[in-house]
Amino acid sequence: MSATILLWSVTLSQWMLVAAMGCAAFRVIRGPRAQDRVLGLDALYVAAMLLILTLGIRSASTIYFEAALVIALLAFVSTAALAKFLMRGEVIE
């Protein structure tokens, strides 16, 4: 019984994460300002990372967890670089 509940809950969370990725992609495309686009891109990274984690839970493979860690690190660096670019106009001083 608990395996069935886990499968249904992971499937439901995957569909919700896909919907969240769609909303974030809409914000990236239609954002009126650059700050809105950066925020949408950050939300897209988080949703993609969580979707990969749920795939790892579903398949019981550790490679998905490592891929999610790489996405989290790249998302942090890119968000910091984009924020610095929007504040100062340059990334490397």
Write the layout of secondary structure elements.
Layout: H1 2-30, H2 34-59, H3 63-88
Membrane topology: Multi-pass membrane protein
Pfam family, one: MrpF_PhaF
Transmembrane segments: 6-26, 38-57, 63-87
Written description of the protein model:
With 93 residues, the chain is mainly α. The protein has one domain: Helix Hairpins. It contains 3 helices and no strands. The longest helix has 29 residues. The relative contact order is 0.11. The model has no long low-confidence stretch (mean pLDDT 91).
Query: Based on DSSP secondary structure assignment, what is the total number of beta strands?
Result: 0
Strand content: under 5%
Q: What's the N-to-C terminus distance?
A: 58 Å
CATH topology: Helix Hairpins
Query: Which residue ranges are poorly predicted, with pLDDT under 50 across at least 5 consecutive positions?
Result: none
CATH hierarchy, class: Mainly Alpha
Our Rg estimate from Cα atoms comes to 16 Å
Helical fraction equals over 70%
Average of per-residue pLDDT values: 91
User: H/E order of the elements?
Assistant: HHH
Described by strand count, sense and barrel closure, the largest sheet is: none
> What's the CATH architecture name?
Orthogonal Bundle
